[in-house]
Each structure stands twice: as structure tokens, then as C-alpha cells.
Amino acid sequence: MPSVKEQKNTLRSLEAKGFYSDAGDENCLSAVLIRSPAPTGKIKSIYINDLPEGYHLFTADDIPGSKTMEVNGTSIKIFGYGNVSYTGEPLGILIGPDENVVQELKKNVVVNFNIESLESALNNVIKGQKRQEDSKKNINLTNFVSELNDMPSLNTVIDKTHTEDNTQEILATRIVKTGMWKRNSTAAEKKLFTNQDFISEQKWTLALKSPSWQETNGAYSYCEGKNLHVYAPTRWTYSVMKSLSQVLKLPEKYIHVHKTKPSGVFAKGLWRTTQIAVQVSLAAVLSKKSVKLILSQKEQDTYMLPGVQTEFTYKTALSKEGKIKALKIGIDIDAGSYNPFAQEITDRLAISACSYYKPENVYIEAKCHTSKSPPTSISIKNLDSPSFFAIENEMQELSKLTHLFPEEIRKINTNVEKTDFPFHIKIDDYRQTFENSIKISDFNRKYASFNMDALTRVSKGSTPFFGLPLRGIGVSTAYNISAYYGDSIFSYNPKIEVKLLPDNKVEIHTIKPSAVIQDIWKQTVNEILQIKKENITINSNFHIDEIPDSPEDASSSITTVNEIIRKCCLEIQKKRFHQPLPIISQKTLGTSITKGWNKEKFSGNPFGTTSFATTVVEVELDSYTYSEKIKGIWITINCGQLYDKAAALKALRLEIQQELTMLVSGKTIPCDNYEIEFIESENKSGQINELIRNTLPAAFSSALSLALATQLNKIPCTENQLYELMKERETNTIKTNKEEKSEAEK
Fold it and tell me: pTM for this one?
């Protein structure tokens, strides 16, 4: 039996504490990543001349173990070697005691390729000349010209074969067909889009970025005897620990991963957080010093985007009554140079592309492909938001075509019977949230007024009166899920242990969630076992062999874990007066709950507990400066049983403020007036997180589109973009009016 000391050394806390950027010591070395200056090419060497004492440059050649880490079947290089995958790929790490000196030395690192590009060759010549200039304080013009003349010609530096090898690669696809498309795709295409009352063709893009005030990614690491410690904002402790063990050839019992809080509205990128933690730990082990790396804001914005880049193309055939006769959706997913989660991202976006709506004839083709952009990760919680942005804006466009209220056209296309639609998502509660938001915002009256003003401006080709703001109002509705039942690396089946101890105390063994969810769990225990909340603790210490192998976001559902805790407590209550203490109950979710989803046919109920929200946004656009102001936000939410309304409101208000920083590039949209209401129900409690993300952007863009009297297809937008859209619309209107007048005169 292992000693108490050995048992303690194999326990790991999965509770997030503090921020990695606050960790450190007075002797900590600063670090920067050396990145590839070119998107293609084969690395020949990476070096720096005259490196001062105490400064080190480490590359893939210095790695003692595996040079790659495995993520969902994808091999990811710790540092680039061989062929480069993209501009900015990490090739090494430079460390030293003075951060300013490290930044200066970074400029002198030389990256040689077997076949140099003209640009990289020129850069190397200039760097070499600068080093001579710094050391000798004079310019040797003859040598400089000689080096330029020795550079290869343009024809010889272009590696055509390598370019051909790097063509776009399809990583994942998903095709969904219903109605006529399912029976005969070729005939359906022609028939469904011929002689229809209305045809709409639009493209939609949601590409939100993290606010610049958030903590950027990075890590802090140091060695203590045989033990390695690393502080990182990870939500995947298992991945960090396994990767460190393989790369550093270090037994897991000597690796201590200290979870820190991931800041902001986006997760830090799962595997990318792991990669940075390994890079910093490698530098700490090799230098035998403590090392900290904090990415610059530019690096964060360029290389750490929260998810994939998507573009949705909708082609819709619509009857004059507002019924969608056919809906063809193309989803283009740019995964960058690679993405370990490509298939899951593709599947999820395909499922949510129609949201609640069930047109009889649907064709969805989602493709995820590579590019020469930096690799991407997955944002588990807001994965579906680009789909909701696209479909809700499309519904707004269809409302304008048919001159129906947005509420009417949505009702028409949810009250669909006898359809072979493959995805069965409960929509009863959705109607309640929609109707309530329409009511409390006085949506229909405002929409009629603002729409009439917009139509008048378009018909007359007039510009708004100087100083008079343009008004618009938009609505969007969406759901959020607690679990996804498809093929997923995140199919985490949490094992929860509840232990009744002497002195009327209870311990719950699981990963510690937010304070709000902790209180919900404690309330469940209190109701069943009659134990005071202050006597209930959550233990997040795990033996290294029991650390969950899935990312922790996969187990964050209130409903899932709370239901398991409830079952454990009921079992304990039955045994309570018949067995000595402690009494322990261990349970998991089980597999019966996922039987409603058919993975082979890609149909059924793909999600766990679903919550719903409808958001209305009213905007005011200054007709002179084109600056936006939100006059009001009205939100209705049905998330089943609401355990703590005050805490839920606090979380939603914070999320609203976070979203307002991302809708327009470079600014925060002001809004002091927002109203949030809940629809009470006895349904299982669902997630409220991300409901704002799934609804507010589309409501905002629909409102701006109405104010502009033209369609806004992309968020975030810029004030210059709004100006150009307005001018383009006015130009087209004037042109159309002239043509109509000319025809009338003839």
C-alpha cells in the first residue's frame, strides 16, 4: 500500500484558482515564441548569433521525448520542424531574465529554409547587416550589395511543387436531405426553385473576437526537485498532463497541473492551451529555471481565434403566404491549417442550421476545409451561434420579402406537420418566449413604424433629414443545449460520488463549477438529506489515474450533474438509518438517455435538456456619424426550473455587457435599458449560458438592417461598413427610379 506521502503526491486538484499571469517569482525568466515568417517551406535551421549569457533558444531539436502531442487522432507539433504549416507557426521559444532584451533578441533569430522565399532571404541579409552595424558601428555597403547579388533569382525561389501539395483539403463533410432532395436531388433543385413567389439568396457570417482587455493565453512553469509545476488556464487537465509526460519523458506522478481561471467569454482553445503549457514547461525543464510566457494581444488575435471561420449561404424558395417551400444551405467552414475537432464542428453546425424551423424540402451541405491560416480549435459552449445568426437573419429577410411580421413568418414555419425532418427538437417553450418578448418590447408597433419609414426612404430615394436618427428593431430566437449525443470527444459521462459523513456533513466529489451551480447542487442535497448548506463541500481532488479524459466543459451541465447528485442522495437516504457512516453513493449518467439519437442515420433527438431565449433589440443610428446606440434590449428565457433567479440575472447581465463589446469593431455599444424575464416551468433545468450569444447578434443586425433599409450580412461590423451599405442602397434606389421613369416615358 502506498505511503500517505505517495498518495498525496498522486492527488491533483481540478479547481481553478487565480490567473496564471499573477503567478511567478523574482527569478522568473520571460519567454517569447519564435514563429515562422512564411506559410510554406522546409525548415533548414533556426539560430541566433551572440546569445548573451542567461538567455536560451530551444527548438524541436531540444525536445527529449515525443515532438508531437495527440489530440483526437491529430498529431500536433510542439515546435514546427520539417515542412511549415502556416505563417506564425511556433518554431521555438526564446527565454531570458530581461523581457525587453528577449523582445529585441527575437528580431535577430534567423530561420533558414531549404528553398528560401525572396522575402525571407532579404530579411536574413538585412538582419546580418544589422548585427554587423551594431557591433562595428559602420556600414559595409560592399558586403551588403554582394549578399543581395548572391540571393537566388525569383524563378528559383518559387517552390511550385510544394504549392501544389498545399491545396485545400476537405477535413469533414455532412449532407442532410429531406423531401424532394431526399428522393431525387437533381430534379428537386430545378423544380423547387422554379416559378416560386419569392427567391432569396443571402450569405451570413458571424466572426466575433474576444475583447482586448482579457488576459491573453500563456503559462508559467517551474521545477521543484523531480516535480514539474505548470500554471495554465486549461479546461483539459488530462490533455496537459499526458502531453507533458510524453514530450518530457516524465512520469505523470511528477507532473502538477495547476488550473487557473480562463478569462473572458471564450475558452482559451483546449489543445492550444495544452501546446503552450508544454512549450513553457519544456523551457523550464531545459533551463532549470522558472519560465513565464504571456502572448501579446496581436498574437492572441492572430493565432488564438475562439473557433472556426464560417460562411453560410442560404437559398430559399418562399410562397406569398410565407411558407418556406425549399431551403438550400451551404456551410463553408475554414479550419485553418488543421483542426482536431473538424467532424464534430461540421455536424453541429449542420444540425443547428435550420434551428427550430422544419421546411419540407431541405438540402444542407457543410464542408470543413483547410487553409493557410493558423489552426483552429473548438468553442464547445458557443459552437452553434453562427448557425443561429444565419437562420434568424434569413427569417428577417423573408419577412421583408413577404411583408409579413417577423412573428408571423416564424409561426408559419414552425407549425409544420408530416415532415421527414431528421432532427427532433422540442419547440413548445420556444413559442412562449417569442410571444412574451414581442409583447414586452412592443415589437409589432415599433416594427410597423420603422419599416414604413424605411420603405418610404427607399421608394422616394431620399436621404434622412440631417440630424434625425434612423431607427430599427430586430428579433432573434434560439436554443441552448446541455449535452450533444452525436459522435464526440466530449461525450463525458460524469462519475459523481456523494458521501454522507459523521456530524451531518456531506462531501460531493466532482469538478467544482461556478458558485451559482455549487449552490444549486447544495440545495438539492439540503432538500433530500436535510443537511445545512454550510456542511456541504465539493471535493475536486482526483487521483492521477481518475482524472476525466474529456474536457471539463463537457460536464458543465446543471441538469446532468444535478440529476446524478439527486439520485445519489435518494440512495443514501434509503440506507441512512440502516448502515454505519460514512455512506457512499456513486452514480453516472448511463447510456439510456442517449437512445433518442441514431448516429448511423444522423437523425433523432441530438441534444439533452434544451433551454430557449428570444431577444429583441431596438437601435438608433446617427445619420451623420453612423454611430450606433441601443435603445433597449428585451429578453425572455425558458430554462426550466430556475433555482436562483438573482444569480441567473447577474450572469445574463454580465453576458450582455460582454456581447456589446464585440458587435462593432473597436468599440462598445452603449445600452442602459434592458429587461429580462423568465417563463416558469417544471421542466428540467437547462443552461442559460450562451443564450445571449445565440440571439443578441442576430437581433442587433436585423435591427440595423431595418434602420439602414438594406441588409447587414456580417457581425462584427464597422461604422464605415454601415456608411457604405447606406450609400450603395441609395445609389441603387436612384438608378432603379431613373430606369422606371424612363420606361414609363417610353
Answer: 0.87
